[in-house]
Amino acid sequence: MQLLKLKDxxxxxxFRKPAVIFSLVLIIASIASLATNKLNLGLDFTGGTLIxxxxxxxANLGEIRxxxxxxxxxxxVVQLFGSANDVLIRxxxxxxxxxxxxxxxxxxxxxxxxxxxxxMRRIEFVGANVGEELTEQGGLAMLTALICILIYVAFRxxxxxxxxxVAALAHDVILTLGLFSFLQLEFDLTVLAAILAVIGYSLxxxxxxxxxxxxNFRKIRKGTPEEVINISLTQTLSRTLITxxxxxxxxxxxxxxxxxxxxxxxxxLLFGIFVGTYSSIYVASTVALGLGISKEDLIPEVIExxxxxxxxxxx
Amino acid sequence: MINxxxxxxxxxxxxILMFGALYALPNYYGEDHxxxxxxxxxxxxxxxTLDTVRSELDxxxxxxxxxxxxxxxxxxxxxxxxxxxxxxxxxxPVLGDQYSVALNLTPATPExxxxxxxxxxxxxxxxxxxxxFLMEVDMKTAMDRAKLNMSDTFxxxxxxxxxxxxxxxxxxxxxxxxxxxxxxLEQAETILKRIDPGYVxxxxxxxxxxxxxxxxQKIKETxxxxxxxxxxxxxxxxNELGVAEPLVQRQGQKHIVVELxxxxxxxxxxxxxGATATLSFHMVDQQGDPISAANGRVPPGSFVVNDKNNxxxxxxxxxxxxxxxxxxxxxxxxxxTQQPAVFVDLDATGGDKMSRGTRxxxxxxxxxxxxxxxxxxxxxxxxxxxxxxxxxVISVATIQSRLGRSFQITGERSPAxxxxxxxLLRAGALIAPIAIVEERTVGPSLxxxxxxxxxxxxxxxxxxxxxxxxxxxxxxxxxxxxxxxANLILIVGIMSLIPGATLTLPGMAGIxxxxxxxxxxxxxxxxxxxxELRDGQSVQQSIHRGYDAAFSTIFDxxxxxxxxxxxxxxxxxxxxxxxxxxxxxxxxxxxxxxxIGTRAVVNAIWGGKKLDKLSI
Lengths: 315, 616
What we know:
The complex is a heterodimer. By secondary structure, chain A is an alpha+beta fold.
């Protein structure tokens, strides 16, 4: 069985101008959304208290909100989580750290107020400066990852590819962040982990493509860089699609079967796979091409001078 | 000949897979609910304790599946959580203060596997249920203490050497020593310099002062000490709580992570872990008037502390004794009054101080002050937490006779509070106060649900990929699927083998992702083989070239992802770390199974034969 039967080379690179405009528009939109809507940062980053409780019967959110208000927690955000019986309550930062005792207090408030048996499922309390540190650490993690990758790719391939793949990574990260900001999905530590996984995935894709471009530059003596890139992209296309498809399949399983706690993670990755696949085709190659990648950059000089091993490089 | 593995290579693949399967096997057996009984402070559990436990369980008719005495601990296994919980409740009062009775999940691993050192994966709190605390050490107090220590040492040394000084005071980030003459200044500098090479001296001959500060190295040392001492003490406290397999670990510059699997009573855990309690003993100032002192007119050398009924008590500032000399504490009842009491034991220095302090004061009242450091929730300008010292007079007792190394304090409201106080004192006073800055509690039912959901996701993802690969690549797809299954087994095996690796919910997500991405290597190889076939190469040549050409691509792609995963592991915490662990293990194992593993199978099936067509 075969997904695609391509006889001819697809002229990917002739669409690079609209692709660049498309990407730029999305990037600008993402940054604009991040600037205005901000990210809906989860407890991990903002600090505060989160309580997940399970009721025996479907919960009445209005009643619970009232109970919380009467208990002096006007800032409480009450919502269903996972099922109709599970309720998530979020409280902002409290003045005194004694607020760690809050969980038990709210549990008994709910027990008395609803006259239902309430089961504590999860309580999380995070101090404000912990969040600050995490944000710093998370940002640092991403930056370090990007730099290390840049160095490795520059070392193994060529600096134009390195810049291309890092541009693709930055592209994917910004768009995913933009999506979370636009839809106001909660951004917590697991989502951050997912974004880092997107980096890994997108990189994987980009390297596969770059590898083929390098190989073809050495093999195909004729043809402009643009043509070589088109050939390479066509050759790797079915692999790119198949891998994206299998990854997409398991992520769907994660999204539908993994439970509410992992939803954000799965969402970020599902989206990330999409943009990652797109960016490995368009962003990375376009940047490398735009920076003027050419045969000479990728063919070891020694072989050029000696003129030996020609046969091996002929198609 | 191409496409033939030497025997040793095939054997190596088989051996590695068997090894992985063996160490993954314990996870199949799951865990038993258990109660673990151990003696506190080095006390061994004896056979008679075992009898007590047995008869109590029989009396309460609690069903258990086994009970053994091993390594000075009793382990009772139960079929379910209800019996386990009930047994713990019933056994605590019977066994009393000397033993800790902890809930535990014990691997139901068969003995032969156990003997091989094969254990199941450790589950994170999000999967097992329990509490996670992140604590911050108050570094400011630690530094203040170090300065206080500096000035005390200097004073003592100068007195010992009979050098008269005007003033020794803690100023800024160091200590200033003011002397009376140039000669004294020079002499003092020489002598004091010998105390610790970590002190930096600047002398000012005009004002006859020595400014002493700590070197950067010394400051670092002091901070390190504060953390490591706190960790030791918290470990002691956790042990007193009787939790099976707790984790106490340093994180970053000033944080300590405490994880208590299976703990549900978070209030008690917090009280004991978070409180930095110490005692100090002061003589009551009988000359001054406590009421007017409470209104601000405090006589010099005295201070006011309220007692339990909020009545002010005027105390002499100089403590007879402070908490660091306490080596032991037990709770019980006063023999005469039957009031709850705490029996305190002191070290030799403490005993001396106590006996000197009380010698001339028989018949006079002495107050026991309970000091607790509480985080206020506010921050200092430098970002560190602010702490407030809360003090309370817990008892005022007339000194009956000169006190020595052991004595008793009464005044606690209930036996339970006396017990808690004893526990805190025993565990030791913290060098610097700590505050809980993060707390995560996961209920046991949610944990079990997370495990179930995670497993379901893995199974569904796995099934979908298997089906796709088989349809798309036919026989080669089956080979890739074998590699995928082997990969899953290897991940589980390695996770079980590495002591520090913990499986978390994001970790499970990482495994799911690995399943999706692990096929990538095979897809790359198979697509290459198809290309070669299309180009008109022979079957054997195509297989050979396909593997060869794909290798460097797979290697580069995976190494870069591995770099990302390792960085995640290094800087990440909590869920990020859990995810990074499974992802990096998954990358390595998938490279092995999809390149070397599938090649072995492909060679065995197709290698060395004359073939015209290939089912790919």
